[in-house]
Specification:
Layout lengths: L1 E2 L7 H18 L14 H26 L2 E11 L4 E7 L14 H14 L5 E7 L3 E8 L2 H10 L11 H12 L7 E7 L10 H11 L2 E7 L4 E8 L3 E8 L4 H11 L3 E4 L2 H14 L5 E10 L1 H20 L7
Parallel strand pairs: 3-4, 3-6, 6-7, 7-10
Antiparallel strand pairs: 1-2, 2-11, 4-5, 8-9
Helix pairs in contact: 2-9, 3-4, 3-8, 5-6, 6-7
């Protein structure tokens, strides 16, 4: 139960004071009509009748006052579970992510799909998105607006930043977004398919910064073993495929994870990548339960209806069986 306008309860002591003032004024008022004797009048019955009517009217006024305070009752209680974790996704959008060793499409397409599913599974956490290639940019700061974040993930494409692989820069940009966070747990999930070849910040230096900030970093290396087909648009012969070697700096990615208390994962296909995100999702959960009401119903009209019925009963009795003789 909640009250939207509780200040109307201040009317109750005011009405009580007015009632006693009226009784006192009425008791001191001179009689309008004198009788030589009043012994023949049924005084006790008359007093009892007045008491019942006054009680009915007082209860009606009290109900109206309570109705003005706008009582509302929650009709459904939801149990919310979640830790309130702040998570930044750092996603590699370099040209090598075009490689089509992940079905049904290239690495970036599958990575975006899996990230959207992950976002949808954490309704009570703030999440954000950083993309990086030759440099890094924030696509979405930490937010609870998950439909917006999912839409921004869907819009990620090649060419949004200059080419290259600046892993350290991508991690540092994500850390900057978590720097002011007050969440109990702060996490970066960094996904890449290459080795650091651009940017002014070394990946392990960024990892030390993450450790100083208390941010845990999960690193994911994506790509099959050996070589992978990569589409090339040739102006003369159209699209063709060339086989490119898969080069992932796993030692650096492991170093980032180990220094920050996270883990390194290797995804060689789309199913493995989806399983990795599910595993991270389970690792970052903790017990936190709170009750939240939804579908609030205003009970004021019900109280007004009861008050109206009481007034009708009171007026009906005063005009019939308890009618006063002039």
């Amino acid at each position: 139960m909640r009250w939207l306008t509780p200040w109307f309860f201040l009317l109750i002591p005011l009405l009580v004071a007015l009632h006693f003032l009226r009784r006192r004024t009425g008791a001191n008022a001179p009689a309008a009509l004198g009788f030589s004797t009043v012994g023949w009048l049924p005084a006790r019955g008359r007093d009892r009748t007045r008491l019942v009517l006054n009680a009915i009217y007082a209860l009606a006024i009290l109900l109206v006052t309570v109705a003005l305070a706008r009582p509302q009752k929650g009709l459904r209680e939801n149990e919310l579970s979640g830790k309130g974790v702040d998570i930044m996704l750092a996603l590699d959008v370099s040209t090598s992510m075009r490689s089509e060793d992940f079905q049904p499409d290239n690495r970036l397409f599958v990575a975006k799909q899996v990230a959207q599913v992950f976002v949808g599974q954490r309704p009570h956490d703030r999440l954000g998105l950083v993309i990086f290639a030759g440099t890094a940019v924030t696509q979405c700061p930490l937010t609870l607006n998950h439909p917006l974040l999912s839409d921004l993930i869907q819009r990620v494409d090649f060419g949004m930043v200059e080419d290259g692989t600046a892993i350290g820069q991508g991690l540092a940009t994500a850390l900057n977004r978590l720097r002011q966070s007050r969440a109990k747990s702060r996490v970066v999930i960094l996904l890449t398919d290459g080795d650091n070849n651009r940017g002014a910040i070394d990946p392990l230096t960024a990892a030390e910064l993450a450790r100083a900030l208390g941010v845990r970093v999960y690193t994911i290396g994506v790509g099959t073993s050996g070589i992978a087909p990569m589409p090339v648009d040739d102006p003369a012969f159209g699209r063709r495929y060339v086989m490119q070697p898969v080069v992932i700096d796993e030692a650096t990615l492991r170093g980032i994870a180990s220094r920050t208390g996270g883990r390194y994962f290797r995804a060689k296909d789309s199913q493995a990548l989806a399983a990795i995100y599910r595993q991270i999702d389970q690792m970052e959960k903790s017990d936190l339960t709170s009750a939240a009401y939804s579908d609030w119903r205003d009970r004021g009209p019900d109280l007004v209806l009861i008050a109206a019925l009481l007034l009708a009963i009171g007026f009906g009795l005063s005009l019939t069986v308890w009618a006063r003789v002039p």
